[in-house]
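Customer escalation, tier 2.

The customer says the design service returned an amino acid string that "doesn't look like it belongs to this structure." They asked us to rerun it and document both sides in this ticket. The original structure tokens are below, unchanged.
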């Protein structure tokens, strides 16, 4: 073994030790699935050399999508070219999801979002219930409907057109899409947005939490990349109108404040999922 080969294998060992157990499992499984794919991926990570394996691999996200889609979940999902984009077919829920961008499917497949995995919700909690979905993306409103929700009101300001297209594609009629950001005017997050973006244009896309909670809901799912901060400024009686909240919280400081807020409003909290040390999902339920 020459020096360059020794350095190569030392780098592989170093990478393994820096990885968490889930990544180690994926790496090991990839080797069993295809030694060629394994060594191509190692070479890409160490030396930045992209490669083709079904589709072009140029990032960690692309690699993990390949692994989950072809190695783990290929019996459930199928992807087809469709007009100006792609269709992801979910055989389990009998859903078709369209996107112009192939990689929009990555969070759906990798995070099991169609099973509401990270939110720890099941059909019993959803059936015949009125659901508020803040930050619905192009997937969770479809699942809520498929799990027999009575009504779903979803706030999705970025992917609303794509979501509407997918609702039509699946002939879903009990989901109402509102293309707005939900914030409280007191929130620091909102003030920062207003500073750095076009003020008038952004204001037209904002509704208050008070307005979003005007009608009655049985469950609220909040996954909106920061808008959860606005809940700190919502009246406790308004929060109590919804008996169950599932909230993704960004940042440890905000996490403590939101837990205190919901405790004051008479809710008990439960940590149900950890993405990383700055990203948590909590369930809040009335005592």
């Amino acid at each position: 073994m020459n020096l360059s080969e020794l350095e190569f294998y030392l780098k592989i060992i170093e990478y393994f030790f820096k990885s968490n157990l889930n990544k180690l499992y994926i790496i090991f499984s990839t080797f069993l699935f295809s030694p060629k794919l394994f060594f191509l991926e190692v070479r890409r990570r160490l030396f930045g050399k992209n490669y083709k394996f079904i589709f072009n691999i140029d990032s960690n996200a692309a690699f993990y999508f390949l692994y989950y889609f072809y190695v783990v979940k290929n019996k459930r999902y199928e992807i087809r070219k469709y007009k100006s984009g792609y269709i992801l077919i979910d055989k389990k829920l009998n859903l078709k999801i369209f996107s112009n961008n192939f990689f929009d499917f990555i969070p759906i497949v990798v995070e099991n979002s169609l099973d509401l995995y990270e939110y720890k919700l099941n059909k019993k909690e959803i059936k015949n219930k009125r659901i508020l979905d803040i930050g619905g993306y192009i997937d969770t409103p479809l699942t809520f409907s498929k799990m027999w929700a009575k009504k779903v009101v979803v706030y999705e300001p970025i992917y609303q057109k794509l979501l509407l297209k997918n609702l039509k594609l699946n002939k879903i009629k009990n989901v109402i899409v509102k293309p707005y950001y939900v914030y409280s005017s007191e929130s620091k997050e909102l003030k920062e947005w207003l500073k750095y973006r076009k003020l008038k244009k952004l204001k037209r896309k904002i509704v208050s939490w008070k307005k979003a909670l005007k009608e009655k809901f049985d469950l609220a799912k909040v996954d909106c990349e920061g808008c959860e901060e606005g809940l700190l400024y919502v009246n406790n009686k308004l929060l109590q109108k919804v008996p169950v909240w599932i909230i993704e919280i960004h940042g440890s400081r905000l996490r403590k404040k939101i837990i205190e807020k919901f405790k004051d409003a008479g809710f008990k909290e439960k940590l149900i999922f950890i993405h990383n040390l700055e990203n948590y999902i909590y369930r809040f339920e009335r005592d």
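Tier 2 assessment: The sequence is consistent with the input. The mean pLDDT is 85. DSSP finds 13 helices and 14 strands in the chain. Sent an explanation to the customer and offered a walkthrough call.
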